[in-house]
Specification:
Elements lengths: L6 H22 L2 H11 L4 H6 L3 H32 L12 H7 L15 H15 L3 H11 L3 H17 L1 H36 L8 H21 L11 H20 L3 H52 L1
Helix pairs in contact: 1-4, 1-9, 4-9, 4-10, 5-8, 8-9, 8-12, 9-12, 11-12
């Protein structure tokens, strides 16, 4: 089956790419927003000409935004993979570690996030039977293997198989799921962009301009430290870490405290306003990401279950005819 061009997928990279370019421009030249009205009034200014491109230039801008968004998505995806190994509660926001499927099949691993409200115990029980009927995979065996290897990726394989079945047997259902997939990837990408943007604006507020040249070196050192920590965690014993419900309160406490210090130091200027906007939009888009991810999972799992039930009825009808 061929998935047609999806506007959500295209805009899911182009819009974040545009946001990254705008944020970088403000970080490099904070006076850009302050001078924007005057620049636009002067039709001969470089900024006015840039914002009124020709058709060829407009297509070029769109392609650049798409490529920047695509590259940023790859960087964010890699960074999430590193951070999940260090901070286990982040597995909730990463779809490739099987934590959701593990909790779905074993209620003792569930939390109160609301991700599991659509699934009753009876549905989960029947769902396990359908997985065995279609794929000849016993969930209980997977559970025992996961306990021995201390790895939840086995559960991800089940979800991938369900997605493949929906892709082949229910293309209309998968088309809706593909749209949700594009939406949740875009929301995660934009939320991550605003998170790093807030950090970048804080750096511009607190770090003197003569020391900004050291920032890239510090970033590389931080990445190296994260990789080292990841290696130590892999070598050591992993323990299940309970998700902290106070994470949101902690986030707003830190954001509010740093914002107050920034206001006390510089007052209300362009950098302070951009920091506040980024700090507020970050959790909003992560919340949208969480919701879209939940709907995407529901679409795939329910779609597979409907296919499995129809398959069973078809086999029974054939047996009765014979």
């Amino acid at each position: 089956m061929r998935i047609p061009f999806n506007l959500y997928d295209f805009l899911g990279y182009t819009v974040p790419g545009l946001i990254v370019i705008i944020i970088l421009a403000i970080l490099i030249n904070p006076a850009l927003l302050s001078n924007l009205p005057d620049e636009l009034k002067d039709k001969n200014s470089e900024l006015a000409q840039f914002l009124r491109p020709t058709v060829t230039q407009g297509i070029f801008y769109v392609v650049v935004c798409y490529l920047v968004g695509f590259a940023t998505h790859g960087l964010i995806h890699w960074l999430f993979g590193q951070l999940v190994n260090i901070f286990q509660p982040l597995k909730k926001f990463h779809a490739h570690y099987g934590s959701f499927e593990k909790a779905l099949f074993d209620c003792k691993y569930r939390d109160d996030s609301g991700d599991f409200d659509p699934y009753t115990d009876e549905f989960v029980k029947n769902f396990k039977v359908k997985i065995d009927d279609v794929f000849s995979i016993k969930v209980e065996t997977i559970r025992e293997e996961a306990k021995r290897t201390e790895n939840d990726v086995k559960y991800t394989e089940i979800f991938d198989l369900c997605r493949t079945a929906v892709l082949k047997q229910s293309p209309d259902v998968y088309s809706r799921g593909f749209t949700l997939l594009a939406q949740y990837n875009s929301a995660k990408l934009i939320g991550s962009i605003f998170f790093f943007a807030a950090a970048g604006f804080l750096v511009r507020i607190f770090v003197p301009p003569q020391y900004l040249q050291w920032i890239p070196i510090l970033i590389w050192i931080l990445v190296f430290v994260l990789l080292c920590i990841k290696g130590k965690i892999k070598k050591g014993d992993k323990q299940n870490v309970k998700r902290q419900s106070l994470f949101g309160i902690f986030y707003w406490f830190i954001v509010g405290g740093l914002g107050f210090i920034a206001w006390w130091k510089e007052g209300v200027d362009v950098l302070f306003v951009c920091y506040c906007v980024s700090a507020v939009l970050c959790p909003i888009f992560f919340h949208l990401y969480h919701i879209s991810l939940k709907y995407y999972r529901n679409t795939i799992l329910y779609g597979f279950y409907e296919y499995a039930v129809a398959r069973e009825k078809s086999e029974k009808s054939k047996d009765s005819e014979n």
